[in-house]
Amino acid sequence: MHIVYPAVVSALLFSVGVYGVLARRNTILVLMSVELMLNAVNLNLVAFDVWLGDRLHSGQVLTLFIIVIAAAEVGLGLAIVLALYRNRRTVDIDQLRDLSEPGTPDDPADPPLRRPDAPVAAGDSIAPADPPAAQDPATTPDPVRTAEPAAEPAAETSGQAGHGRGDEQPAKRGGAL
Amino acid sequence: MTEAVPSYLSPTGQEIVFLLLGAVAVGSALLVVTTRQLVHAALWLVVSFGALAGGYLVLTAEFVAWVQVLIYVGAVVVLLLFGIMLTRAPIGRSADLDSGNRWVAAVVAVATAAVLVTMVIDGFRTAYTPLRPGAGAAKELGTSVFSTWVLPFEALSVLLLAALIGAIVLSRTDIPGGSPPEQTGGP
After folding, report:
1. Are A77 and A14 part of one and the same domain?
2. Would A104 be classed as within a structural domain?
3. Are A39 and B48 an interchain contact pair (Cβ–Cβ within 8 Å)?
4. Fewer CB atoms inside 10 Å of the end CB: C or N, chain A?
5. Residue A42 shares a structural domain with residue A122
6. Whole domain around residue A156: which residue ranges?
7. Residue B30 belongs to what H/E stretch?
8. What is the sign of the dihedral through the CA atoms of A24, A26, A29 and A35?
9. Based on the domain organization, do A118 and A160 belong to the same domain?
10. Is A83 an interface residue toward B (CB < 8 Å)?
11. Is residue A101 part of a domain?
């Protein structure tokens, strides 16, 4: 058996897997493409183990290990995908852009909270409109706060003041410019 | 190992069978990454893995071939099908399975294939080995695993246990401390 044949087949399989990882949008299809790439590596390992006639069978043993690791990887990957689907109702990779840079083009998930267009209306008209938007995440720990009603107004005002100051800082800078 | 390389123009029966199986594997892999139906992708994956298992058999790696059939075809594909069902993916044809950068991806994949195939053909043109049956039997591999490779084997079993526990923890919803359930709408 010429070793070139399995090597070429595994190279083609790996390229197909590369295409699948880069071109697919569904997360499960990306997992399938990763499996294709792992199988290409396995074929290479088996072929070179047969060629070298390794007495320790390191190539085939490593193939078995890779199969086990691939099984673990698929289990964990699918658990992550299911958690993602529970939280987001989608497994579309193009829509999962929470970790992208803010301000990147074609970013639909960019939150309009920190838009730098605040300096244009830097005065008093927009600045009071911003704190409610910025306060939305701060309202979620409300059940915690109701446990101590005496400290509630102080905490709320301080939080509001902090948010207001945080939002006004770029506004002031813009005004100075 | 490298003495008296037979000609490429007179392939043996083993090589012909392996090339046919390799063509089936690569073709069904192409269908996996290009088909428009999710379930069909998983089923073509079965064909690809089965053809690869046949290739392992031709390469005298019997034990690896049966493990491939058991774990990949039997477990991994079923797991992927479960994932498809549980995410309520559309069963019929869906038009948006491909991302917008598929042409860039195709260029990258073709470049990868060109580089790898050129390099492999250039490097291993003279590599030839006669196939010796029984080299990859379960007895030989078991002796090797349990004499030389015991420590990685045990470490792998711990890793598999950790992965399974992690998968259970990730997929359970009644564990406190996770994400609050009112975020299902998503921002």
Report:
1. yes
2. no
3. yes
4. C
5. no
6. 112-176
7. helix B13-34
8. positive
9. yes
10. yes
11. no
- Whether residue A60 contacts residue A49, with contact meaning beta carbons closer than 8 Å, is answered with yes
Q: Which long-range contacts (CB under 8 A, 24 or more apart) does B176-183 make?
A: B179/A87, B180/A140, B183/A87
- Chain A CB contacts of B170 below 8 Å: 76, 79-80, 82-83
Helix (H, G, I), strand (E, B) or coil at B100: coil
Q: Do B41 and A22 touch (CB under 8 A)?
A: no
Residue pair A16/A35 in contact (Cβ under 8 Å)? The answer is no
In sign, the C-alpha dihedral spanning A152, A158, A161, A167 is negative
What's the gap in Å between the CA of B105 and the closest CA on chain A? Answer: 5
CB contact under 8 A, B71 and A67: yes
Domain count, chain A: 2
What single string gives the DSSP state of each residue in A21-57? HHHB-BHHHHHHHHHHHHHHHHHHHHHHHHHHT-TT-
Please determine, for the modelled complex, whether the ipTM score is greater than 0.90: no
pLDDT tens sequence across A13-24: 999 999 999 999
pLDDT of A89-125, one tens digit each? 888 888 888 888 877 655 554 444 444 444 443 444 4
Residues 32 through 51 of chain A touching chain B, CB cutoff 8 Å:
32-33, 35-36, 39, 42-43, 46-47, 49-51
Is A1–B59 a contact, with Cβ atoms under 8 angstroms apart?
A: yes
CA distance B157 to B69: 20
**All residues at 6 or more sequence positions from A42 whose CB lies less than 8 Å from its CB, including other chains:** A63, A66, A67, B52, B64, B68
Query: Is A106 part of any domain?
Result: no
Helical residues (DSSP H) of A26-151, grouped into ranges: 27-52, 58-88, 130-135, 142-145
Number of cross-chain residue pairs from A and B with Cβ atoms under 8 Å apart: 274
Question: What is the CATH classification number for the domain harbouring A69?
Answer: 1.10.287.3510
| pLDDT above 70 for B154 | yes
End-to-end CA distance of chain A: 74
Please indicate whether residue B178 or residue B46 has the higher confidence score (pLDDT).
B46
Q: In chain A, what residues touch B96 (CB-CB under 8 Å)?
A: 25, 92
Same domain, A15 and A87: yes
> How many Å apart are CA B52 and CA B58, to the nearest integer?
10
Euclidean distance between CA atoms A61 and B136, whole angstroms: 10
